[in-house]
Write a structure and sequence with these properties.
The chain is mostly helical. The chain has one domain. It is about 55% helix and about 0% strand. The termini are far apart. Pfam families: FdsD.
């Protein structure tokens, strides 16, 4: 896809979401790119951003740098050891 068209599309998406609170805007921009852009478009955008992101909205650059770093999963709690259950008919101690 033409680089200028890709930049224009990215800025239009960002312009739509920019009035929203920043967290909502960045999540929505990233979700849109992930859902609707072909992987080749995302790869091309990564190259554009890695080359400086000229012409892109700062909010889009920030969002996509975070997106390209991968998901942020909360730390999983360590499961505790299972407690032994008393056998049927045996009083619990």
């Amino acid at each position: 896809m033409d680089k200028e068209v890709l930049i224009q599309m990215a800025n239009q998406i960002t312009d739509f979401w920019s009035p929203y609170p920043k967290t909502e805007a960045t999540e929505s921009i990233a979700r849109h790119i992930h859902t609707f852009w072909d992987p080749r478009m995302r790869d091309q955008m990564k190259t554009i951003i890695d080359d400086g992101g000229e012409g892109l909205s700062p909010l889009f650059i920030e969002t996509m740098k975070d997106y390209f770093n991968g998901p942020k999963s909360p730390a999983k709690p360590v499961p505790s050891a299972p407690q032994a259950k008393p056998k049927a008919g045996t009083p619990a101690s």
